[in-house]
Amino acid sequence: MKREIWGETPVSVKLLLGTSFMMNLGFYALIPYLTLHLTGSIGWTVAMAGLVLSVRQFSQQGFAFLGGVVADKFGYKGTMVLGLWIRAIGFAMFAFCTETWHFFIAAILSGLGGSLFDPAGSAAFAVLTPEPIRKEVFSFRNVLTNIGIVGSQVVGTALASVDFTYLSLFAGTMFAVNGLLVLFFLQPIAAKNTRQGIWSSMSVVIQDRRFVRYTMILMGYYYLNMQLFLTIPQLVEDVTARKADVGIVLSAISVSVILLQMKVSQWLEGYNQRFTLIGIGALVMGVGLFLLAFADNLWMLIVNAFLYALGTMIAVPNVVEVVPRLAPKEQVGAYYGFNGYSLAIGGSFGQFAGGWVYDTARHLGASWLPWTICLVIGIWVAWQMHRMEQSIQAENRGKNCTKMARS
To answer: What residues contact 43, with CB distance under 8 A and at least 6 apart?
Structure first.
């Protein structure tokens, strides 16, 4: 981030950036290795492990709409703290799971915590960050996310090689500490929506057809995004037969983002067609995933993973920055929460269906199948985002013509 932009960034936003880093350190240390723990030590299939991950994902994003409305109604800070502590309990519980249902309870608690702190945190970022520097701050947040991922691979690999219990407790501790930091150091943020009830707030979002359409298209993007937590780690272990190589490939993705995210954002700074950029990013991700079908060594996996990472660098800052532009100021949390359905449905389907397709492809000897599906989805998202961009431009031209006619 440029020094002058960092100087314009409020202290509370800097605190949120720090907590975002710590959350990602704990989250990404646990989730990829949870898959390997379930398929290795517990002996589950990839599809069954994907079901646990999808339950966690849907518990979070399925209730995030309600969590966002609650945050708008009762305040972002308190909602964040409660959610962080519930997530801490859920992650720590994985250390003590012995029965199948134990894992699902831990997954549900982990998700419900996220349904509270995620939309509240995103809304707090948007509300506290001055609009002229918002895109740069969101880009830098993505860089910090990936720094956290790199660190998480070191921590995750080290703790998982000793005992999964320590890894689970570490992840829970990260979220518990973040809850304390937010409680004691984040400035109070007044509730933004004190006039409307919970159900009427939900109704406003649901009736926004443009935003609903945007959310539905993003389901395809999150199908691609979720392969990072399930099929990519499994493929790396299958190709190289070394669990440590999972951390190497995931770290390669993260290091690419750390080094290049701000540059990519600067290169695209003058390109204001944000929906088209999201589509281009999804297409590049799909191509990178498709090429994994031909990877037969660690270096090819890393090269294809870099292409996937480039797609996320194009898409991610625009995905999160579009929401506050489309949302009324008093309902940013609700809009972020509803937008979570794209991750709830697309991400959950991506994990469960992705795992099932991967298992099926193994059985059929069709290793290309899961990655070809990713390419098709990337093409579809790119096309739909381009169409949406054209629709919005046509709508804006119509409004400008009407204003001119009235004047």
So the answer is: none
